Amino acid sequence: MSSQKPVTDPRGVPGALRRDVEGTTNASKGKYELVIDPKTNTVLHFLFKSEK
C-alpha cells in the first residue's frame, strides 16, 4: 500500500485517507482499496477487486 500516496476519501469521511493499489492475491490480478482513519488507525474500508 505504501507504493501509492493516499488521497482524501472521495465519499467524504472527514479526515479519512484512501489508497487504490494494483496487486495480486491467490494468483488473481486486481486492485486493493483501503480507507483508513489515521487519527485512530482504524480501517474503514478494505476490498480487493479482481480483473475479469
What does this structure look like?
- The model has no long low-confidence stretch (mean pLDDT 92).
- A hairpin with a 4-residue loop joins strand 3 and strand 4.
- The protein has one domain.
- The protein has no helices and four strands.
- Strands 1-2-3-4 form a four-stranded antiparallel beta sheet, with no helix packed on it.
- 0% of the residues lie in helices and 58% in strands.
Major sheet attributes: 4 strands, antiparallel
Give unreliable regions as ranges: none
Distance between the termini: 22 Å
The counted number of beta strands is: 4
> What is the share of helical residues?
under 10%
What is the radius of gyration? Answer: 12 Å
Strand order of the largest sheet: 1-2-3-4
Q: What is the number of helices?
A: 0
Class by helix and strand content? Answer: mainly beta
Shape: elongated
Order of helices and strands: EEEE
Kindly estimate the percentage of residues that lie in beta strands according to DSSP.
over 45%
Mean pLDDT: 92
Q: Write down the domain tally.
A: 1
